[in-house]
Design goal:
mainly alpha; Herpes Virus-1; rod-shaped
Length: 365
């Protein structure tokens, strides 16, 4: 109440209230505190009623009752506000606690997520390491398998090469045995013939010289006509000392194929295999008056006879139409060059032109 005395003084009241209080007796400090709730309308009503013949005590009692009711209403409102404030404070505290709980739960969830993320990262790293290790093992296994395959292919290649060498050696031995057997048969045939039989054979082979001594019997024999010309041997075939043979299919030819390429392998495998004399067949030049040792870089092949010759004996080039070299001069040995130079070859315009070109050749095999 002391605070009310300090805040509500008599001087602070309006003039109608002051006049009323001056007329009324027995006003206490508690009553003075009620003027906190007085309004301008109350003072206007007091002013009007003071002008009438109404008693001041009645006006005060009516005003005091109204002020008490207002104070009660204000106290009720204050209590309601205090209750609401308490409720709001309680709600705020509950919200704060909920917020703190949510933050704690969020922190725990974040920590759990971080741990799960680290666990996933660790598992991923372990899985990646395991995959890399497995990839390394697979690469090593594949490399080992590839090496094994290469070793097996190399062994098969060596076995195939050894088989071909055995077959070639066997064929060569069979050819040598056949030649020896043929020579034996010729020798036996010569021994079986006597001098008289040889003389009779000689007379039969020279009918013009011994026409009077031979008994001739003329017979009419029918000859079958044919459009094909009889087989003939050219000069190159008769003077060639090496029989063309394919190193791949081992086919033999009576005369060199075009550009010395095996026609069967070219048609079947689309590959070129030269049918001239093999490199390992000799270690010296095959020209009769040379016999110089030949090596990897000094070994050449004559395109006419197919023999292995040295670089000194193949310094010149020549056109060899019989083997397919009719446009560009190719390597030719000295012996074949003499025979080719003595034989005219037809040029592109139909006139005879020399077959040999005396220009030096490059030192290439």
């Amino acid at each position: 109440m002391s605070e009310q005395k300090k805040t509500i003084r008599f001087e602070d009241l309006g003039e109608p209230v002051q006049k009323l209080l001056k007329r009324v007796k027995g006003v206490t400090e508690e009553d003075m505190a009620l003027f906190e709730f007085v309004s301008v309308k109350d003072m206007a009503k007091i002013y009007q009623e003071m002008g009438t013949d109404r008693e001041a005590e009645d006006i005060w009692d009516e005003l005091k009752g109204a002020l008490l009711a207002r104070r009660e209403k204000a106290e009720k409102k204050r209590r309601e506000l205090a209750r609401k404030e308490a409720e709001l404070n309680a709600d705020a505290e509950a919200d704060e606690q909920a917020r703190l709980a949510e933050e704690a739960a969020a922190a725990e969830e974040a920590e759990a997520r971080r741990k799960r993320k680290e666990e996933r990262r660790r598992r991923r790293a372990e899985q990646q390491a395991a995959e890399e290790e497995q990839a390394r093992l697979d690469a090593e296994e594949a490399e080992a398998a590839e090496q094994e395959r290469l070793a097996q292919e190399e062994a098969e290649r060596k076995a195939e090469a050894k088989r071909r060498r055995r077959e070639a050696k066997k064929r060569a031995q069979e050819e040598e045995l056949a030649a020896i057997e043929e020579e034996r048969q010729r020798e036996a045939k010569k021994k079986s013939k006597n001098i008289k039989a040889e003389w009779e054979d000689y007379k039969a082979a020279h009918p013009l010289e011994f026409a009077n001594d031979l008994e001739q019997e003329i017979q009419q024999v029918s000859v079958k006509r044919s459009t094909k010309a009889p087989p003939s041997a050219d000069f190159n075939l008769l003077t060639r000392t090496y029989t063309p043979q394919c190193p791949n299919c081992h086919a033999r030819f009576s005369k060199p194929p075009k550009e010395w390429d095996c026609p069967m392998c070219l048609r079947r495998y689309r590959k070129r295999f030269k049918c001239w004399q093999p490199d390992e067949a000799t270690k010296v030049c095959m020209v009769s008056d040379c016999n110089i040792a030949v090596g990897r870089f000094s070994r050449h092949h004559c395109r006419n006879c197919g023999r292995v010759v040295c670089s000194e004996c193949t310094k010149t080039k020549a056109l060899i139409p019989s083997v397919g070299f009719d446009e560009t001069p190719v390597k030719c040995c000295r012996e074949c060059l003499v025979s080719l130079a003595s034989m005219p070859s037809p040029s592109k315009d139909g006139e005879a032109a020399p077959a040999a070109d005396a220009s030096p050749s490059k030192q290439a095999a």
